[in-house]
Amino acid sequence: MSESEEKSGKQVSNENIGSLDKLHEDLKPKIQFSCYLCGMFEECHYKGKEPPFVSGSVKFREESYVIRDPFIAPPPLGKSKAEYFIIIGTQCVICKNLVCKGLSCSFYYNVTYCLSCLEEVMTKLPKEVQVRAKKQIANSK
User: Considering only CA atoms, which of 131, 135, 128, 95 is closest in space to residue 111?
Assistant: First the structure.
């Protein structure tokens, strides 16, 4: 037993070390995401609709690329799941290209559109949404 373990009265077991190794492995981003419009690249923790590291019953409408919030510490071992996350991007519903959630790349109205495809479907959207979409397109240029 080490001197620090003797002072604290705690001993680090191989099981605890294995659990910590698994936690660190789970925290490593493994899924690559790259926005086809701006080229932003990020390694994500999860791709799908229900991230396992989010507490509660969060379910996205569309398959999303998600990272844990890098500014929040992960929960202690054995405690509740993390609640903080960032959606990096998803597929455009029309062209199927990956697009980030940046205002100069995508627009969300029930589903995500890249700004190129948004112009194609603009007239099919409600008038108030068209106003917002046109403003976003104008600001992105």
Answer: 95
Q: Is residue 98 within 8 Å of residue 34, measured between CB atoms? A: yes
In angstroms, the CA 138 to CA 50 distance is 34
Tokens linked to 42: 């990020």
The four Cα atoms 41, 46, 47, 50 give a dihedral, to 10 degrees, of: -140
For residue 63, the number of C-alpha atoms closer than 13 Å in the C-beta half-sphere is 9
CA distance 76 to 81: 9
The answer to which of 67-71, 80-84, 130-134 has the lowest mean pLDDT is 80-84
Tens digit of each residue's pLDDT (9 = 90 or more) over 13-38: 455 445 545 545 556 668 999 999 99
Q: How crowded is residue 9: how many other Cβ atoms within 10 Å of its Cβ?
A: 6
DSSP states of 71-101 as a string?
TSPPPPTTSPPP--EEEEEEE-TTT--EEES
pTM for the model: 0.75
